[in-house]
Amino acid sequence: MKNICFYFQVHQPFRLKKYHFFDIGKDHDYFDEQENKAILNKVAHNCYFPANALMLDLIRKHGKDFKIAYSISGTALDQFEMYMPELIDSFKALADTGCVEFLAETYGHSLSVLKSREEFIKQVKAHTSRIEDLFGQRPKIFRNTELIYSDWIGDTVASMGYKGMLAEGADQILDWKSPNYAYNNPDNPRLKLLLKNYLLSDDIAFRFSDKSWTEWPLTSEKYVHWLNSIPKNEETVNLFMDYETFGEHQWHSTGIFDFMRELPGQVLSNSGFQFVTPSENINLLDSVGPLSMPVPVSWADQERDLSAWLGNDLQDDAFDSLYLLEKKVAACNDDSISRDWLYLQTSDHFYYMCTKFFSDGDVHKYFNPYNSPYDAFINYMNILTDFTLRINKLMEKKMKTDKIAFAPTAVNNLKRKRIQKPIAA
């Protein structure tokens, strides 16, 4: 039997409110609660609730023969808890079936691995603990923000005990190889890699409703025919996509829910494929060999690199300025500072500063609250300036407090030394 591995990304950022230069030093509330709540409500009713209900129905219909996986960012979970706790219950119902696996990622959906190993590990541990608390599963498979992977990132993930990691099956890496096998990290062979089959994934996630596509309309029968056309020796098809594919990227009226409702039955009845979770896939497949990615690869845009987040001077300046604050944030030991630091790391903020055009332009406009990348940069840097002022003021206050606390201790120590000093004969 060959394997189909369905994985869905669930993420919502804490979007920033419009923050002007004259707000610096006066307004320390950076996040647009009204907008975050409104967007979550929209996406929940278009996607999360109906898609969860569909997945639950499919599991009840097909039993253990239908399995899927999610990674839900910590920022999404925090918003669920704040604005719509019934969403967490909806995912718990899926977890209770035993047919759903939850993966680990960075809590803040951040790019921290590119700047700070310590911050990266801290966020991954926090996210893993949150998933275990909510869904009763301790994640065994890791999925990095935006599917960003490289040899050294994989080595770090392996050192944390994860046995598998998801990555993009990028052409510039695979060359003549197929994404339909398990590979392993070249520096740490214990870490197996599951690669996204981006052609078959994007047929659902991006091309499904495109009437200019030569394969439109896509039916479950046609899709299974494509699966059956895969060479017999290839072992797995990994279909990785945003969960918002269902109801947001592809509206309900496109027939995307009907397609997904029919697909498992078609696969199970008319193909040699079985549905597996990422952990099961890792256990079932032997690695066909190491796959080296010396430069980070992502699942974004045509380039499949980091240029969606760190491809211009605006993004690089904002990113560098943020992580210059890391040690100061830790020294503050303040809950409010730590929370804002976490949410300001979310990759979306840098994505909004992207200046790429042409074929990827429409993708970058999705849920983008800014008129231009420059507007996104100015807004972010205004907030970061105020955030820096708060940190410096807190550290100054902390230093003064420490000095006051130190003074009587120093005096008492001096007195004790004088008493203990032997009297000259």
Short key terms for the protein model shown above:
16 helices; 7-stranded beta/alpha barrel; 9 strands; alpha/beta; 425 residues; five-stranded parallel beta sheet
Structural description of this entry:
The chain is an alpha/beta fold. It has 2 domains: 2-284, 7-stranded beta/alpha barrel; 313-413. It has helices spanning 33-62, 74-83, 85-95, 117-135, 151-159, 171-174, 198-205, 220-228, 256-270, 278-284, 313-323, 326-332, 335-344, 348-351, 361-365, 373-420, and strands spanning 2-10, 68-72, 100-102, 141-142, 164-168, 182-184, 192-196, 236-242, 273-275. The longest helix has 48 residues, at 373-420. It starts with a strand and ends in a 5-residue tail after the last helix.
What's the gist of this structure?
The protein has helices at residues 33-62, 74-83, 85-95, 117-135, 151-159, 171-174, 198-205, 220-228, 256-270, 278-284, 313-323, 326-332, 335-344, 348-351, 361-365, 373-420, and strands at 2-10, 68-72, 100-102, 141-142, 164-168, 182-184, 192-196, 236-242, 273-275. It is of the alpha/beta class.
